[in-house]
């Protein structure tokens, strides 16, 4: 029985794309519900100044609480050394750094060249080594499959950047389809090439559903050995039509796909869908995406580990939990 | 450069799932637009008594017109010998017969056992051989991946049914995920087994997006040699939440996936999306699905055959054609 790690990025990637700010009480309840549903890695926020990202102002409270949940790896995004220092001081277990594969995107996003970001990552790794060697450092390579500013991103550039980051001491390097431009053949090619270059340090697939290819791209990545997948409950914040919006892969549909294929995620879909109630309460009016919650599980559905669901219907007729 | 055939089933599978009836003028315009956009096989309706399916009452007019378009294979669904006789009399080029892999579904749908349907198919093939040997006979095997009535459908049953239909003289036998229960591993297994049994007579993948797995399942089928894919423009009629609704794969997103992968479909996405105007005019209020029309093509997009689009934006900001 193969196993994959679903890395839930809704509390960071989802919430930062939503206009309103989810109250801290709801975020805490959501994190609890995600952990109870079996999520084992949760990206709970970003260490970015609150004046820049008010949705993430309560990150320290979230970390403090999340660290009491033994079943999860608590992860947060840090864009630079300063953020990494703050994050590490909270006792967090894993930090993730976004590094753009596209020079244009790197400049637009963080006003650094790709090479300058590699240097920054090196400084973060050195700080981690000196002060908190148990903390995992991941890089998510943004625009690895294409950039809305520069268009195509050369696959050689992606591979060389992955090598440079591995050289700098990063524990795992994943590829992110920030702009939803990836196709399955490209996903297979690129992850294969990166794995040939950096081996076991090949990390997560962070794929988007901007053009409907999210799950096909996840399947393609799985086919070439990827075993960690970023996704967002309800595809939160994932209005794929708005320029710059995220279009995240929906956790519920991704979990259904894997479990139906006999691949173990450890996630209970009934409990996960029940957690939607927290989202609708904490972000009133915010649309949630995904097909499986409404369609329910299939008749005769069995989880990969042999468990049966209590009820194949996940949501009641009026859209609340069954 | 690999090539796939997209078989557009919107005018039949889509329209029969929609409550209102599209006016004949719009249907004719739609068929013209589909042909102009490069679709090469169009399922234009069903030969079913008009009192049972009023949406299909104008089928003979549609066939007469469609037969004037040299670039397309004109196909229609026939549920029995009587329908086949009527269809063949119109001069149609291809007929498709739905045969359920699930006994429960067969009884509920046509009040025959699977074996009785195989006999009916044999009679249709014999009639074709005697009266119109140029007409192609296809079977779409419904509920091949699972049934909402009986649950799991044994893979052996699917293979044996395929063999029986090939024995009966059917030209191609495709597998249909009528209930949207398929997963990619199952799709690969089943199409491989069917191809091992009946070889070149292995036909189309008719997959649904009921749980978000439509394109992942199409990719899986492509991986094991399937080269014909049924889909519906705008996922028409594809409200996947309503019990019994179709949840068809969206043609626009499917075409984007293949072309982005370098697989030739022959379809012009700009012209195809422009045809949506006919749908919105002919079926006011009917929701259209799919991501690619709103997101547009990717920056730097090139069709598999080397053509560039005129404009990567497919729809204007207010949802009309760009």
Mind sketching the topology for me?
Two copies of one chain form a homodimer.
Chain A lengths: L4 E4 L1 H5 L9 H14 L3 E6 L12 H8 L6 E5 L3 H9 L4 E7 L2 H8 L3 H18 L4 E7 L12 H13 L4 E5 L7 H15 L3 E5 L7 H10 L4 E4 L19 H10 L8 H6 L1 H7 L9 H4 L27
Parallel strand pairs in A: 1-2, 1-8, 2-3, 3-4, 4-5, 5-6, 6-7, 7-8
Helix pairs in contact in A: 2-3, 2-12, 4-6, 7-8, 8-9
Write structural notes for this entry:
The structure is a homodimer of 322-residue chains. Chain A is globular, with a radius of gyration of 18 Å. Chain A has helices spanning 10-14, 24-37, 59-66, 81-89, 103-110, 114-131, 155-167, 184-198, 214-223, 251-260, 269-274, 276-282, 292-295; strands at residues 5-8, 41-46, 73-77, 94-100, 136-142, 172-176, 202-206, 228-231. Chain A has one domain (5-295): Alpha-Beta Barrel (TIM Barrel), CATH 3.20.20. In chain A, helix 7 (155-167) runs parallel beside helix 8 and helix 8 packs parallel to helix 9 (214-223). An eight-stranded parallel β-barrel of chain A has the order 1-2-3-4-5-6-7-8, surrounded by eight helices. Chain A is built from 13 helices and eight strands. Chain A starts with a strand and ends in a 27-residue tail after the last helix. Chain A binds chain B through residues 146-148, 150-152, 179-181, 183-186, 209-213, 215-216, 218-220, 240-241, 247, 250, 253, 256-257, 260-262, 290-292, 294-295, 298-300, and chain B through 146-148, 150-152, 179-181, 183-186, 209-213, 215-216, 218-220, 240-241, 247, 250, 253, 256-257, 260-262, 290-292, 294-295, 298-300.
